[in-house]
């Protein structure tokens, strides 16, 4: 990686990583703010704004925005998470400037038309309905509710019908004006890009953004609890969690490798013991997610409703045993999987842009590939077991759809 990091005078961060041999460019605007920062009663605002800016910006309507990027064979999209909103584009190298200009228009000059807003609410409500009909998606939201209770971080990114309907145009404009401040913005470009050209455009498009401190983000704490939904379904969808680690915690790589070894692939303990040996689950996996000040370790599975309690008990016992006796061989296999995934991701311009932006958001700088690999390689089985034991010492959260299970003591 040959990444260059520049901070504009107003605080906007620009990260650029030219890639030899690439023909395409990936450019994104990464805003370190998401649904956990929404005002009370306005759940879904961050996501709705992300949708609305595509309805028209600067001199283009929605069709013109789509045609502008697709006329050159590129793509333009966005996503919203609890702690991040991203607008990203991929084009061939000569059109990288157009991509950044379009992104700047979306966040700095959206029309936010009242009629379009009401129509887009219907689109979001349709998306919400689709999520509510998909237990394997909905279980994640339920798990966050069980883990974080009534804290803002617990609320679903999509929001709920009453809060979506309550959002006004003033809410949308206020969100952009208050939250999209320079200190929260990272422009990341990778691939066949000219650093001087990208930096010049970044200064021209974002350099005049006023340096005003954004509202503080409320801290969150893993509480633990239960969220159950006894709806009729073909299978039981279950998830349990324990406190994870903040993304910048030095022990976070150890916990991530513990999760990978326990439930990250077909050779993992959870997959082998519950699916291959017992036939208890079709889908089962472990994962971790770190935020600025908290995190969670979780296991998701789907199983026959009649065997839900058995499957959940075995899954929890399997994780607990791994925290006691995870082997060097299991850790080495997990490390190989994580290293391979990292290297494969960084072969692509979008992967490099995402990696740079995440590194800046978490550590305030761009971590080199050597540093990332060194972190992974420094974790041995003892460190992974220690991370697992520390995690299991905290409170638990449990979410279920269609099955009856209880929170373990």
Short key terms for the protein model shown above:
409 residues; alpha+beta; Cytochrome Bc1 Complex, Chain A, domain 1; six-stranded mixed sheet; five-stranded mixed sheet; 19% strand
Concise description?
This protein is an alpha+beta fold and 409 residues long. The chain has helices at residues 45-52, 62-70, 96-108, 114-132, 135-148, 161-166, 169-179, 195-206, 252-263, 269-277, 308-325, 328-345, 349-363, 369-377, 381-392, and strands at residues 4-7, 13-18, 24-31, 56-57, 60-61, 75-80, 85-92, 185-191, 225-229, 236-243, 283-290, 295-303, 397-401.
Helices and strands in order, then pairings?
Elements lengths: L3 E4 L5 E6 L5 E8 L13 H8 L3 E2 L2 E2 H9 L4 E6 L4 E8 L3 H13 L5 H19 L2 H14 L12 H6 L2 H11 L5 E7 L3 H12 L18 E5 L6 E8 L8 H12 L5 H9 L5 E8 L4 E9 L4 H18 L2 H18 L3 H15 L5 H9 L3 H12 L4 E5 L8
Parallel strand pairs: 2-8, 9-13
Antiparallel strand pairs: 1-2, 3-7, 3-8, 4-5, 6-7, 10-12, 10-13, 11-12
